[in-house]
Amino acid sequence: MKDLRIALVQMQVNIGDVKKNREKIAGFVEEAASRKVEMILFPELCVQGYNRERAREFAEPIPGESTNHISRLARSFNMVILAGLAETSGSEKPYITQVVAYPNGQVDKYRKTHLGRSEKPHFTPGDQLPVFETEKARFGVEICWDLHFPEVTTVLSLQGAEIIFAPHASPTIVGDRRDIWLKYLSARAYDNSVFVAACNLVGPTGENQEFCGGALVIDPKGNVVAEDFRGKEGLLVVDLDSRLINTIRHNEATSMRHSFYLQSRRPELYQLLVNTRLIN
Questions:
Q1: Domain total of the chain
Q2: Which of 36, 56, 67, 85 has a CB 3.0–4.6 Å from the CB of 47, allowing a cystine?
Q3: pLDDT tens, 140-166?
């Protein structure tokens, strides 16, 4: 990995107002470009807004109008853009997708693989865990609920991911969002020796929904690098220092403190236990 400047967006969206939401995305990208950002992360379903019941109504194909818009921004501002939208699936239930648009015009995507109980009646789960790559870093995407499943981050790290981008659509609930995230996002980062960069929708959507916001970056040792939990729209710009993760990943550590723990896994034991339980 090389040193990298990223930005995380807390964004208020209006359900179904795709034009206005895309204009807001463009404004954040332009601001990020003025601050020399190289990769920018937008929240889950930021293009159409997060609404389970109406997602099918606003879903778009990929490639499509919104994807083309995001791709043009990536080319114009020489930036990798990760933005969330509802993608048509060929069935009644769309995917929750994070588009990855590159400055060279290439477009990739990740489809949310783990759906919450309230999402399953309305969305189709993805079935792949891809790792993407730029000249500076390899990265994976996990969308909101995905982060509660430790195996996902482990699989991505074993495939070479150095950063996990974590777009959220987490509502305002009882409990502090920072405290909730730190319980498990720090564990995902520490156990798998990855950066975790998370952001969230913020504010009301106009349809009896409100999101609590939050932006957070955690380093490969589980330490908070930068954060913004003021509960309002904004851009958090963070410089990722590659020295720590390179020390861990390239076996340059002089003590066990910087071990890459995944290299010491014994998967034959884990599989044996799984098989034993299935037999019993």
A1: 1
A2: 85
A3: 999 999 999 999 999 999 999 999 999
Rounded mean pLDDT, 51-56: 93
Residue 181, class by beta-carbon neighbours within 10 Å (0-12 exposed, 13-18 middle, 19+ buried)? buried
Q: What is the pTM of this model?
A: 0.94
> What CATH number is attached to the domain comprising 46?
3.60.110.10
Q: Which domain holds residue 27?
A: 4-279
What is the rounded average pLDDT of the residues 14-23?
A: 95
Cα 104 from Cα 141, distance rounded (Å): 20
- Classify each residue of 4-18 as buried b or exposed e, where b means 16 or more C-beta atoms within 10 Å of its C-beta: bbbbbbbbbbbbbbb
Residue indicated by tokens 């020295």: 243
Compute the half-sphere exposure of residue 122: CA atoms within 13 Å on the CB side of its CA.
16
Convert 91-113 to b/e letters by CB count within 10 Å (16 or more is b): eebbbbbbbbbbbeeebbbbbbb
Task: Point out which residues pair with 5 in neighbouring strands.
Answer: 239
With helix as H, strand as E and coil as C, how does 139-170 read? EEECCHHHHHCHHHHHHHHHCCCCEEEEEECC
Quick one: angle between helices 65-77 and 18-34, nearest 10? 10
Question: DSSP of 220-265, one letter per residue?
Answer: TTS-EEEEE-SSS-EEEEEEE--HHHHHHHTT--SSGGG--GGGG-
Q: How many residues does the chain have?
A: 280
Residue 54 to residues 11, 51, 190, Cα–Cα distance (Å): 19, 6, 37
Neighbours of 205 (CB within 10 A): 20
- Could you tell me the CA-to-CA distances from 182 to 113, 177, 185, 212, 216 in Å, in that order? 22, 9, 5, 15, 9
